[in-house]
Amino acid sequence: xxxxxxxxxxxxxxxxxxxxxxxxxxxxxxxxxxxxxxxxxxxxxxxxxxxxxxxxxxxxxxxxxxxxxxxxxxxxxxxxxxxxxxxxxxxxxxxxxxxxxxxxxxxxxxxxxxxxxxxxxxxxxxxxxxxxxxxxxxxxxxxxxxxxxxxxxxxxxxxxxxxxxxxxxxxxxxxxxxxxxxxxxxxxxxxxxxxxxxxxxxxxxxxxxxxxxxxxxxxxxxxxxxxx
Length: 228
What we know:
The chain is an alpha+beta fold. It folds into two domains: 4-178, Deoxyribonuclease I, Chain A; 196-228, no CATH class. It has helices spanning 4-7, 46-61, 101-112, 199-203, 205-227; strands at residues 10-15, 20-25, 32-38, 69-75, 115-117, 132-133, 140-141, 144-149, 156-162, 173-178. It has a six-stranded mixed sheet with strand order 1-2-3-4-8-5, covered by helices on one side. The protein has a two-stranded antiparallel ribbon with strand order 6-7. A two-stranded antiparallel sheet has the order 9-10. Helix 2 links the parallel strand 3 (32-38) and strand 4 (69-75). Helix 2 runs parallel beside helix 3 (101-112). It starts with a helix and ends with a helix.
């Protein structure tokens, strides 16, 4: 969903499959691309997971290189551990000590594409890191993530979950603050073009003769005007 202001800045909406979609927004200096993704859960087959990341990488490679920022956000079903060796792509602000299989696949994807897992970069209270509540208990996991390219990562200035809004889901709403300005598209009114029924000139002899007489008359008038 997007508000009216964002809608007026929308350049393109492109659904890739049932797990990935992309929108492109008009920016003041450069355009902004946002990708939404839903990764397979941990219990899914390994080939299905690899196929998902292959498709996601293809979408990223098709994005115009001059776009200001690429935000990849969604339910990656991935736990990112709090380890020092992950600092090039992830920060220390996570509620998990170890990365599981999905987390490792997300980390490798981020390394290959020079992305930063931004939701692990901002210090917040513990309750703002939990995004998915495990059914039947109060325990939460941090499995929804936001990724941005390293050269534009400073444009994402905050990521946190919001417990107040009712999303009718077992996931909490994730709020992302981006320091970029969008522009409103100027709609140019289309001129109505008159369609000539040329077929009648070929099929109806009387119509063709009438058209030829009118055309000859107009040509004679033009010649007279030039002589004057």
